[in-house]
Amino acid sequence: MPTKTKDVVVIGGGIVGTAILRKLSFYRLDIALIEKQPDVCEGASKANSGIIHTGFDAKPGSVEAECLKLSRDLWPQLIEDCKIPYIPCGAVMVATSEEEKQIIENTYIPNAEANGVEVEWIGKDELLEMNPAVTPNALGGLVVPGEALCDPFWATRSFAEIAAMNGAEVILGNGVRHIERHPEGLKLILADGQEIVSRYVVNAAGLWADEIAAMIGDNSFTLTPRKGQFILTEEQVPISQIILPVPTRKSKGILISPVVFGGFLLGPTAEDQEDKWDRSTTPEGIEAVLSGVEKLIPEARNYESIRQFAGVRAVCSEGDFIIRPSAADRRMVLAVGIRSTGVSASPGIAEMVFGQLQEAGLEAELRDSYVTEIPELFGEANEQEVGEIVCLCRSISRGEIMNAMSRPIAPFTIDAIKRRTGATLGECQGNCCIPKILDLYEEKTGVKPSQPLKGLLQSNLAHQGGTPT
Amino acid sequence: MTYELVIIGAGISGLAAAEIAHEAGLKEVLLVDYGKTKGGMTRPLFDSGLFEQERQLLERTVSLPYEIKYQSTVTGFFPGEDGENHQLNLQTSNGAELIETSKVMICSGSLEKPREGNWIAGSRPAGVMTASMALGLAARGYVPGQKLLILENGRIMAATARRLESVSQVVRLSGEQWEVTRISGIARLNQVELRERATGNRQTVDCDTLIYAHRRIPSTFFLKGSAVERDEHHAISVDETGKTNIDNVYAAGTCTNQGDDDHLQSIALAQRATRALLNRKG
Q: Are residues A165 and A310 located together in one domain of the fold?
């Protein structure tokens, strides 16, 4: 295999990596993204609350607060350009005791002001009128009108798609095995043996960013996995805003919010653990979510759930985002320790990383023309295109699934099709339509995979074999 | 054209309803079904010996002179007021259609409630699936796994186990006796932890596939927001004759609150409901 050369390679296909790739793709640079899993958005970016935070509660002066501030100005245009499903519903931090009300007044109102985020205290009557499900014990709440919900799958993918349309190479299912120094840059050796020499590398490897940094001898930070368990329900919960508790020292706390795909999300927990791969839910964790939400929404314990899941976020030893060139080799720029506001901060992180690359010596000139908008690839021009319903629970048609397979970042797994269409997200969790989706995949690509994948590498759903008698 | 009767679903209940309609002499009858064949989700099990009544029903109804729209799903239901015709939005492989009918039998069945709807702890690897997904994979030449654990809770699971035993190693445990408490494995399932309901004893089974479902999801998604009453599990609320709250709209089988998860009552319920809808003595 010949060695490729690139100007910049981004390691990690989460929301941070793809936001950086999108930004870089506007410049005359030869760039690539490397993701070890078969699709973008397979790590922390896929298992979170989907909230675009304003940063009202971020520590003023932190890198995180700065990225969130930059992002606030960038999101409106991004949502339009990328057609990201978005609900500008606002959030309310509910006080259920005088003590909590004091914390809001003494901590969160001044903090929001320091970060330049608009907030407003509302009394109990107004709170309950907007959110009838909230406990009558509430004293009132702090409304943060700028908090919003988005589809993080869509955001991540659309960033990568715009980059791909501008010529960026997106390498999926092929992680970085090791890194060597090279006169022309850093030499990345991938899992399949492929070699890429890149003048600059951005480390946006999420939970694994410490391992990537260690490949060039940078052990300056460590990442600790912190698990968050969630419950998804399709019950009709009468709330119109994201309902937040008053946070604890460790976490923003357990919240309940609408979901852009429909339904409501309860969670997350905040559990430190050692295993980066442990995304299991536990009876204790689920109980913690229910008892947490129950304080705000008394009915919560009676909800049926269509799914529970856990995400793992990266808690950094430095207690803040790290966005800087590595001390071990300035040709690697770190974008790591993005603990819990990765989706929200990603546009700002991309700006800051671009600045760091320039400081490290990257010369970048804007292209004469480049794509900034996602085209209408879901255009349902005629009824024939729409076709029969494939996913019964969510009423997703054949046409929608076929269109998803024509997108610039093509899906290779069932979860990738889920994230592009919403199919399999409903109550039956794909048990009804996954075999039909395999048919459509075969029809589209002409290939019947011997071991179709659910999501991760090696997550084979089944294998080709004998027919039962 | 206006139909005399539209039967939503050509599974066990729908076919039983169609047979009664034919006996009653109805001519303009339409069946619509999500699948590509008659018989519904349990069709692959009809030859197992555990679905003998259903197999015979299918045989008897093979040549009914009624139009069937396959790969078609009702996406909207608009009951007619004061004896007017009902309207149905249909999504087919050729696009959307609007159908009018004077009577409706809803036999849309149900999906199996999977692991996720039953709050089972653990990870979310590939290899955990319901019986119908396992059968759907098998029908396409895929083997669901090398070593299957099947939690049996009725004839659907028992027949599925029989079918898969010829291609995989199958461990069968009684779902009445055992409950699944934890699922392990990152990319693919590797272990299932179970608890004996009566004693609290635990055991683990090393396997790459778990075939599991408990309770059902009535396939009534198209009734969301319509005037047809459903209970808290989204099953259509019917009386003992299958009558819904809407005139000339009856329902039978697993999409209703009278049905059972294993389709044991579906034929009888559909026969009774269709007779009631058509004012025929049973």
A: no
pLDDT digits (tens, 9 = 90+) for A111-138: 999 999 999 999 999 999 999 999 999 9
pLDDT over threshold 80, residue A75? yes
Q: Does B190 touch chain A (CB under 8 A)?
A: no
Instruction: Please state the domain extents for chain B.
Output: 2-111+216-277, 114-211
Q: In whole angstroms, what separates CA A142 from the centre of its chain?
A: 26
Residue at A368 is within a domain: no
Domain assignment present for A367: no
- Note the helical H segments in B84-231: 131-139, 155-164
Read off the amino acid at residue A108: Y
How confident is residue A231, by pLDDT bands cut at 50, 70 and 90? very high
Dihedral pair phi/psi, residue A13, rounded to 5°: -105, 40
Q: Hey, is the C-beta of A438 within 8 angstroms of any chain B C-beta? A: yes
On whether the CB atoms of residues A370 and A42 are closer than 8 A, the answer is: no
- Find which of A397, A429, A434 to mutate to test the B interface (most B CBs within 10 Å of its CB): A429
Q: What is the pLDDT of residues B94-104, one digit of tens each?
A: 889 999 999 99
Torsion of CA A133, A139, A142, A145, to 10 degrees: 40
- Structural domain including A19 reads 4-46+152-222+318-359
CA B59, chain centre distance (Å) = 19
Q: Looking at chain A from residue 300 to 359, which residues have their Cβ under 8 Å from any Cβ of chain B?
A: 304-309
**Is A303 found in the same domain as A182?**
no
Compute the distance between CA of residue A365 and CA of residue A319 in angstroms, rounded to an integer.
34
> Which amino acid, residue B226?
S
Nearest to A456 by CA among B79, B185, B108, B227: B185
Considering just the CA atoms, what is the radius of gyration of chain B in Å? 20
Counted domains in chain A: 3
Query: What is B114-211's CATH number?
Result: 3.50.50.60
Query: For the segment B28-58, what is each residue's pLDDT rounded down to a tens digit?
Result: 999 999 999 999 999 999 999 999 999 999 9
Supply the CATH number for residue A135's domain: 3.30.9.10
B262/B153 Cα distance (integer angstroms) = 9
CA distance A433 to chain B (A): 8
Q: Where are any strands of DSSP class E within A151-288?
A: 169-172, 176-182, 185-190, 195-203, 223-233, 242-244, 255-258, 264-267, 271-272
Select the residue of A308, A428, A460 nearest B126 (Cβ to Cβ). A460
- Residue A67 has phi, psi (to 5 degrees) of -65, -40
Enter the ipTM: 0.96
The DSSP-derived string for A187-201 is: EEEETTS-EEEEEEE
The reply to whether A255 falls in a domain is yes
A131 and A167 belong to one structural domain: no
pLDDT per residue as tens digits for the range A397-454: 999 999 899 889 999 999 999 999 999 999 999 999 999 999 999 999 999 999 999 9
Identical fold between B2-111+216-277 and B114-211 = yes
A428 and A416 co-located in one domain: yes
Same domain membership, residue A290 and residue A228 = yes
Residues of A in Cβ contact (< 8 Å) with B166: 466, 468-469
Check if the beta carbon of residue A344 is closer than 8 Å to that of residue A73: no
Best residue in B33, B37, B111, B157 to probe A by mutation, most A CBs within 10 Å? B111
Helix residue spans in A117-169 (DSSP H):
124-130, 152-165
The CATH code that applies to domain B2-111+216-277 is 3.50.50.60
A293 and A413 part of one domain = no
**Closest approach of chain A CAs to the CA of B282, in angstroms?**
34
